[in-house]
Amino acid sequence: MMAVKMSKKASSIDMTAMCDVSFLLLTFFILTSTAKVPEAMPVDMPSSTVQSKLPESNLATLTIGKGKVFFDLKGREVRIQTLEKMAEKYGVEFTDEDKKEFSLMEGIGVDIASLKSIIEMKSSERLKANQPGVPKDSLNNQLAEWIQFARQANIDINDKDLEIAIKGDAKEEYPSIRKVMDILQDQGVNSFSLVTGLRGKDF
Questions:
Q1: Reduced DSSP (H G I as helix, E B as strand, rest coil) percent helix, strand, coil of the chain, to 5
Q2: Which residues, listed in sequence order, are joined to residue 163 by a DSSP beta bridge?
Q3: Which residues contact 37 (CB under 8 A, 6 or more apart)?
Q4: Which of 2, 13, 42, 156 has the fewest CB atoms inside 10 Å of its own CB, making it the most exposed?
Q5: What is the SS3 assignment for 160?
């Protein structure tokens, strides 16, 4: 008996639904993602397995690297009030526009006298500017003043103690870190966070 050969037809898959799903997912991730804020001084953080997250508010971050210290603070109103207190202490004048721009800036690494010129720069220019770090020596310890005024401003505005985080470069020498810790301890701050990069656990 003769076998009947079935004619082979080219199979086709309708990809319309798959394209729709792909574009919906792409749109979702674009709309819900947040752009990474460029850091004033990028550092290579040491690794750890701790997964605790830093708070989104009531936080001051001290970034240490290459012997420099940069100061950053969360909250626009807190930043403005802290700047006003520093300006009053050191006799520096800032306009309302300067204060508004400062409230939106990333961390700073200059003395208060040079801050106005940094504020007037564009964001891209600030990242390229060679900021020498906030002064922290015994004769001109502006870092201690920034921390003290920021703590007062945060209590006045948010009625909460300001949390402190230290983000140090993995290759930074210990005396630089110790100097910042001493400044904090002089103000009675004995509890602070150390920012690290996450690494996988060893099993």
A1: 40, 15, 45
A2: 59
A3: 106
A4: 2
A5: coil
Give the C-alpha distances (Å, rounded to integers) separating 154 from 41, 94, 101, 103. 24, 20, 19, 14
> Side chain identity at 31, as an amino acid letter?
L
- Which residue type is seen at 196? T
Residues 6+ apart with CB under 8 A from 197: 45, 46, 47, 48
Q: What is the pTM of this model?
A: 0.76
Residue with tokens 């656990």: 201
CB atoms within 10 A of CB 177: 17
In this structure, the number of other CB atoms found within 10 A of the CB of residue 160 comes to: 11
- Give the integer Cα–Cα distance in Å for 195 and 202: 20
Element of type H or E holding 83:
helix 76-90
SS3 188: coil
Distance in angstroms (rounded) separating the CA atoms of residues 87 and 21: 54
**Residue 69 Cα distances to 112, 134, 155, 174, angstroms:** 14, 6, 24, 13
The first and second tokens of residue 158, run together, are 């948010």
**Angstrom distance (rounded) from CA 15 to CA 155:** 58
